[in-house]
Amino acid sequence: MSARILDPDGKRRVFLVDDHPLVREWLTNLINQQKDLVVCGEAEDAPQALQAIESLQPDAAVVDVTLANGSGIELVKDLKNIAPRVAVVVLSMHDETLYAERALRAGARGYVMKRETTKKIIAAIREVLEGRLYVSEEFRNSLTEKLIEGKAGGSPVDELSDRELEVFRRLGQGHETRRIAEALGISIKTVQVYCARIKDKLGLANATELLREAMRWWESQHQH
Questions:
Q1: Are 109 and 222 in contact (CB under 8 A)?
Q2: What pLDDT, on the 0 to 100 scale, is given for residue 132?
Q3: How far, in Å, are 14, 78, 99, 135, 170 from residue 176 at the CA level?
């Protein structure tokens, strides 16, 4: 395992990325209560996070999968390139079945849902700092099953690329094309291309059907 840079008190340094100030405050208080961990910085979006993490080179980063500006999954991919030594834990309100495998493929070492206990969040940070993966036992079993039996994804939405899923999610939240383009730092035309691909993959006839399906899907994600 590569050497770790410790803060003056000998603690592992953790960087937080979440667009909700209350969540960042909660995580900061939680992490700073630990004898071996300390929060060294925070950011509310992907551009801020990239700049700060490249500069600070923390030991670990806790990243929310859904950010107001940018995408948590794309941020994980970028961090793998500019700061490969940083162990990333993705923290999400979304069920593991939707984003965990995508997060791991992108380069994250752990995935924890926000509804989990604080003990599990701390455990995840410690596990990834030791070079191990952290996911729930249920998700680990489903991955093993998928690998052994070659099971395909259970939903057409699983077939969307990370970028397509990000556009689909924002459509479901009621965001217009221009707003999605600005948030993701891409052109309106590119968003329209993604929308066309999503319609094709989901077998939808037009923009109205796409919007209706995206909103239905987004609501279904928040029923549990």
A1: no
A2: 94
A3: 35, 26, 23, 34, 8
Closest by CA to 168, choosing from 195, 205, 196, is 195
Which residues have C-beta within 8 Å of that of residue 37, sequence separation ≥ 6?
11, 12, 13, 14, 31, 122, 125, 126
What number is the average pLDDT over the span 195-199? 95
Residue 58 CB burial class (10 angstroms; 0-12, 13-18, ≥19): buried
Query: Where is the domain boundary, 146, 179, 196?
Result: 146
- State pTM to two decimals: 0.78
Identify the residue with better confidence: 153 or 149.
149
Whether 5 is covered by a domain: the verdict is no
Q: Are 19 and 67 in contact (CB under 8 A)?
A: yes
Residue 145 CA to residue 148 CA, distance in Å, equals 5
Which domain CATH number covers 35? 3.40.50.2300
pLDDT digits (tens, 9 = 90+) for 21-78: 999 999 999 999 999 999 999 999 999 999 999 999 999 999 999 888 888 999 999 9
Q: What angle do CA 100, 101, 105 make, to 5 degrees?
A: 120
Max Cα-Cα span within the chain: 60
Collapsed DSSP state (helix, strand, coil) of residue 13: strand
Task: Read off the DSSP letter of residue 88.
Answer: E
Q: State the pLDDT at residue 1.
A: 31
Query: Which residue from 53, 63, 84 is spatially nearest to 16, judged by alpha carbons?
Result: 63
